[in-house]
Amino acid sequence: xxxxxxxxxxxxxxxxxxxxxFANQQGWLSAENWRYSLANLAGAVLILVSLITAWNLPGFLxxxxxxxxxxxxxxxxxxxxKRR
Length: 84
Fold this sequence. Notes:
By secondary structure, this protein is an all-alpha fold.
C-alpha cells in the first residue's frame, strides 16, 4: 500500500499533536509555552489537509476547533494578546 502525500501529512499531524500532549504530561513542555500551541496548530492543519481526500465531517469539525483553540493559545502565550 503506497501512502500518498496527504495521508502522510495527516499522520505527521497526528504524531505532532500526540507528542505535544505527551511532552506536556511528562512536564517537558508546558501548555503555557507557545511551542505547545504551535505544535497543536501545525498538527491540526496537517490533519485538515489530509481530509481533502478522506473527507470526514466530525474529523473536520474537531480539527477546526483544535486549530482555533491552538491559535488562541499561540496568540495568548506568544504575547500577542494582552493578559488581564
